Amino acid sequence: MAETIFSKIIKREIPADIVYEDDISLVFKDINPQAPVHLLIIPKKEIATINDISKEDRELIGHLYWLAGELARDMGFAEDGYRTVMNCGENAGQTVFHIHLHLLAGKPLGWPPYTDRMKQA
Ligand code: AMP
């Protein structure tokens, strides 16, 4: 798998606003936030897309969702609600091919979550 910008963030080769780290995952603020809170929860393991998740990765993927709930409780928006999104491939608008769970919160979130780019399509 080609190295992505997220691998460089993991290795501290480029800066990011990191809010949490453990041995298997990293959480940092999205550089182009779509909500008052917009975090990216990533595994340190390089997995390009949802299509590349293997059976052995199931616990790792569960860890990302567990972290989303922990962060929501810690940051105080668990009761108000929030959204988690993992885009897969071109039609979903995936731009970084290292899986990541978007965690969006801090305002009522519309549905469907169209981006400007998708509206123009
Ligand atoms: P996706 O379109 O689902 O692949 O999401 C990729 C996300 O990564 C976008 O929301 C970008 O704003 C975000 N992003 C890209 N580069 C960086 C970076 N260097 N630091 C933080 N977030 C980034």
Task: Describe the fold and architecture.
There is one protein chain. This protein is an alpha+beta fold. The protein has a single domain, classed as 2-Layer Sandwich (HIT family, subunit A). 24% of the residues lie in helices and 21% in strands. The protein contains three helices and five strands, in the order H-E-E-E-H-E-E-H. It has a five-stranded antiparallel beta sheet with strand order 1-2-3-5-4, with helices on one face. Strand 1 and strand 2 form a beta hairpin. The longest helix has 18 residues, at 58-75. The chain is globular. The structure holds adenosine monophosphate (AMP).
CATH topology: HIT family, subunit A
**Tell me, what is the CATH class?**
Alpha Beta
How large is the radius of gyration? 14 Å
Strand order of the largest sheet: 1-2-3-5-4
User: Structurally, how many domains make up the residues?
Assistant: 1
Question: What is the CATH architecture term?
Answer: 2-Layer Sandwich
Residue fraction in strands: 15-25%
Mean pLDDT: 94
Residues in helix, % = 10-25%
